[in-house]
Design goal:
Chain A has 4 helices and 14 strands. With about 190 residues, chain A is of the alpha/beta class. Chain A has an 8-stranded mixed beta sheet, sandwiched between helices.
Chain lengths: ~190, ~190
């Protein structure tokens, strides 16, 4: 049964990037450990703590059938060079289509993107990799789970994971907790 | 050795109260369990999960020698009726002194309040119970630890635990994690 899962690395004060889209303070845990987690991209292998490796492995072993993101992260990563590290098809929510789509599919309506992603994913899960789309899916009741990889830092300012929520409170389950190094992975179901 | 510790219940999106100072969504874990934790106030006993009881007990068994708060929470609680549940002396940071001080000490300068609290606490720890003072102590390098009792809810708006930080990033240790019911207690040291 497909679950729609939003997952991001977040500072303790709620930011998933700094004011300049910087993520250096938040992504250190991807490279601070002794366990190699290969990705779908040949030259990209994460080196994480054993606990984080257990947390990451399913996503990099085929559990995710589609990834939905916004145009901002797509442009920032240059469309992941045509291949997302997870190795699944990418669905981008954007008002316009770029000259080079890097193999991704583009939609103006986030719910149409979700519908197409569901068809692609089959029984596998769908990852949501952008805060604004997470917020829209939350408001539309389309999100099943939230994974916060909580990083022990206060950034003070930047881009928030959760912002502009129209329908609150959103109540969650108690989390499954995985204690990594430089990160605490918290997996919540939306109830 | 005294530690200055800021501790609050916080939603996953960073709020310690809603827009109207409401805390109903955040304080449920104080009453959802089978273990009684008595407080210094005769009629006030918490009923929490076994894990939360372990987390709470030291504070209610004399580990905290002084508590620092702002005028807002002091007024909202009516000065805790003259006795804080922790049972320790209360130091209030405020621009003015109310007619009824409820036995608390008042200071205009947060660092003077801290100095007085240190004298009172001796070797015991000092609790900081207000976000703005937490922020000021963080900026002044006077905070040793942050305890976030993370509640599985998104509030969308309200009063944030961490806001207006002048000096960032603030790097923290990996947390000690205690998994309660309706709350995850995360204890970070500031490094």
């Amino acid at each position: 049964m497909t679950k729609v899962i939003a997952e991001m690395s977040m500072s303790l004060d709620g930011f998933i990037a700094d004011e300049n889209d910087g993520i250096d303070e938040l992504f250190g845990w991807y490279g601070n450990g002794e366990v190699a987690v290969p990705t779908a991209v040949e030259h990209m292998t994460f080196q994480v703590s054993p606990a984080s490796a257990e947390h990451l492995r399913p996503a990099f072993a085929g559990a995710i059938g589609a990834l939905i993101c916004g145009r901002r992260v797509f442009d920032l990563t240059n469309g992941w060079g045509g291949k997302h590290p997870i190795g699944c098809p990418v669905f981008v929510v954007s008002h316009s289509v770029p000259a080079d789509q890097h193999g991704a599919a583009f939609f103006t309506d986030p719910l149409e993107a979700l519908s197409a992603a569901r068809k692609e994913a089959g029984d596998r899960d769908i990852a949501v990799a952008t805060p604004t789309i997470t917020q829209q899916f939350l408001d539309a009741g389309e999100l099943d789970a939230i994974v916060v990889s909580l990083v022990p830092v206060l950034l003070g300012r930047g881009i928030r994971f959760f912002d502009n929520l129209a329908t609150t409170p959103v109540r969650l389950s108690d989390p499954t907790v995985t204690e990594g190094r430089g990160v605490t992975h918290l997996t919540y179901n939306i109830i």
